[in-house]
Write a structure and sequence with these properties.
A hairpin with a 3-residue loop joins strand 1 and strand 2. The protein is about 30% helix and about 35% strand. Strands 8, 9, 10, 11, 12, 13 and 14 form a seven-stranded antiparallel beta sheet that branches. The protein has a five-stranded antiparallel beta sheet with strand order 1-2-3-7-6. A two-stranded antiparallel ribbon has the order 4-5. It is of the alpha+beta class and about 240 residues long. The protein has two domains: about 5-80, Phosphorylase Kinase, domain 1 (2-Layer Sandwich); about 85-220, ATP-grasp fold, B domain (D-amino Acid Aminotransferase, Chain A, domain 1). It starts with a strand and ends in an 8-residue tail after the last helix.
């Protein structure tokens, strides 16, 4: 498969057309950003760790009945994906209060959210990703009511699967972001599932294992990404969930 012209370039990924119909190449770059792009760096190896973890989780979710855009890795930092009609929504599932929900609402960091809280933002750098409610989503004609209900159901199922998998490896899934798209009328999970899109804490120590290491200057980012990738890709004692 050959990589052709650039289709889209985000803060840390580039998407290219390929020489196969309806197949795209998603390349994970070593760029890292925070605070709406105000903080930027390039960290060697970051793209590879995110690609490996994303590929693993997409395969894992497919095995458990979640439709995704993933088709396979073509090298250490790039995967082949189905071409989806992406929906401009960022769907965040929160299991524990941390990050922006603590800054914007009267939650204390570390508060367990039971049941998990789903928050949905409009994906727009220009508008700084404003939060939406169901009425706004439907008024903007971004999805139908049935599609919105399905997206929320899939999000909660993905949360359950990932939380159980990570817990077996001593990692707490605090929150994470998902994006969805349509393919032949079917809602599919797209984008990535990586340390850039998840907030992960070591269950014993509470140590950050995600992009917060970079955001908050908590230490060696690549060492943290390498550590969590190793844990995610390894079998836990007693076997996988």
């Amino acid at each position: 498969m050959r990589q052709l012209d650039l289709v889209y370039e985000g803060k840390a990924k580039s998407v290219y057309r390929s020489d196969e119909p309806d197949r795209l190449i998603m390349r994970f770059r070593d760029d890292i950003t925070a605070f709406d792009g105000e903080k930027k760096d390039v960290l060697s190896g970051k793209g590879r760790f995110n690609a490996e973890v994303s590929a693993f989780f997409f395969r894992y979710l497919e095995e458990h009945g979640i439709p995704t855009h993933y088709l396979g890795l073509i090298d250490q930092s790039a995967m082949v994906v189905r071409n989806l009609e992406m929906i401009p929504l960022e769907v965040i599932v929160r299991n524990i209060a941390a990050g922006s929900i603590v800054r914007r609402y009267p939650f204390k960091e570390g508060t367990l959210l039971d049941p998990p809280v789903i928050m949905i933002d409009y994906k727009s750098d220009v508008l700084h990703d404003p939060m939406l409610n169901d009425d706004l989503i439907l008024a903007l004609n971004l999805v139908t009511r049935d599609e919105l209900d399905l997206i929320k159901a899939i999000a909660l199922k993905v949360n359950e699967l990932l939380s159980d998998y990570l817990d077996a490896r001593g990692i707490t899934l605090v929150d994470f972001k998902m994006e969805f798209g349509r393919r032949d009328g079917e809602i599919c999970l797209g984008d990535e599932i990586s340390m850039d899109s998840m907030r992960l804490w070591d269950r014993e120590t509470g140590r950050s294992l995600d992009k917060d290491v970079y955001r908050l200057g908590k230490g060696d980012v690549i060492a943290a990404y390498a550590d969590v990738a190793r844990q995610i890709l390894s079998e836990p004692a007693g076997g996988a969930p």
